[in-house]
Amino acid sequence: MGAPTRARRESERTLSFVSDVSRTYLLAVIFTLCRVCCQPLEMSTDLKIILCGWRDSLLTTIGNTLVGHQAFRGQGLEVQHDTGVLRHGRKVDVTIMILPVPVFFGSASAQKICDKTLTNFSFADFHAVIILTHIFPDLSVFHPPAVHDFMRDSIGQRVLKEKGLLLMTGQERFTDAQGKGDISLSFMTWCRQNTTTNFQNLFQMAQERCLLFSQDVLDCPCNQLIDMIDRHVVGGVHYIEVKIKDIEMRFHELADIKLALLQLQIQNNALKETLQNLSGMLEDLTEQVGRQNTVMNTEIQNIKDKIDRRHKGSL
Q1: End-to-end distance of the chain based on CA atoms, in angstroms?
Q2: Which residues, 6 or more positions from 236, have their beta carbon under 8 angstroms from its beta carbon?
Q3: What pairs with residue 95 in β-bridges?
């Protein structure tokens, strides 16, 4: 009776697991059908990003982190680009643009050329335009002069509103100032209220899309950056498409986890039943040994009695 009962229990567990997995995949199919019905043509979730700043080392490090390999090597070129792959097999095309700081050139004509660096560039094909800024020791915020001219241009204003995103280095200085009590505001509130007018205008034009990160160029929050681009810059159907892919991936992960847990549960149950069987066998052996001991003790006692009777008879 024990073996059929055990087999029936394992069969019921397996059917329950298959039912759970079936429901999981059914939900994934429903999400996929909804995506197809709501969007007749599959939308690409690939990203095309441009990074604009004045620090070659920082731009190349962020660019290399985004594409996943050492594509940018600080070759001194003003514009470089390469491609990489994000999760779900999404392609990312990254361009870095080094914005010259005109004080190094020392002439009004050079400054005018530098100011027009962004204005004369076409951003039509890019999903996100990322501008690097920096917190100085006096807690002022620096951004390249070319950005000022870009903010005054009508096309530049539209680009910043639709695609702009700010990355600010100097997290250590900001947190140190908070710890000393020099700053009592959150980062976003500080950007709105306690920065220069130029930066506040840039911050508002970019729809307050700003990330603060460490001075260490290796500590770039690239995952946060991609998530912010997906959610707040590209948004819409693109963001829904990415989230559906995340859900589908999670469904597969959960199915694998459930399968592994079921296998462990089956192994655990089998081990328990084996131990129970061994315990029963041990009890049977103990009883058998006890009975044999009783028989042997009886026989020994009979032998002793016979010896005693013979000994008394001989006397």
Answers
A1: 64
A2: none
A3: 50, 81
The answer to whether residues 187 and 171 touch, using CB atoms and an 8 Å cutoff, is no
Residue 212 CA to residue 160 CA, distance in Å, equals 18
**Top-confidence residue, 158 or 57:** 158
With H, G, I as helix, E, B as strand and everything else as coil, classify residue 96.
strand
pLDDT in tens, 72-122: 876 656 788 899 888 777 888 999 988 877 554 445 555 565 566 777 788
Whether the pLDDT of residue 200 is over 90: the answer is yes
Secondary element (H or E) of residue 131? strand 128-135
- As a three-state string, the secondary structure of 244-273 is HHHHHHHHHHHHHHHHHHHHHHHHHHHHHH
Cα within 13 Å of Cα(65), Cβ side: 17
Closest by CA position to 206, among listed 162, 167, 170, 142: 162
User: Which span out of 19-28, 108-117, 253-262 was modeled with the highest average pLDDT?
Assistant: 253-262
Q: Is pLDDT above 90 for 171?
A: no
CA 99 distance to own-chain centroid: 31
Structure tokens at 170: 């100097």
The C-alpha atoms of residue 127 and residue 48 are separated, in whole angstroms, by 5
Q: Whose CA is closest to 168, among 215, 126, 200, 205?
A: 215
Distance CA 166, CA 133 (A): 7
Looking at the DSSP bridge assignments, the partners of residue 48 are: 93
| List of domains in the chain | 47-234 (3.40.50.300)
Query: Range with the lowest mean pLDDT among 55-64, 71-80, 127-136?
Result: 71-80
Given this model, what pLDDT does residue 191 score? 92
Q: Work out the pLDDT band at 9, boundaries 50, 70, 90.
A: low
Output the pLDDT for position 29.
54
Strands 164-169 and 210-213: parallel
User: What is the C-alpha separation between 66 and 85, in angstroms, rounded?
Assistant: 8
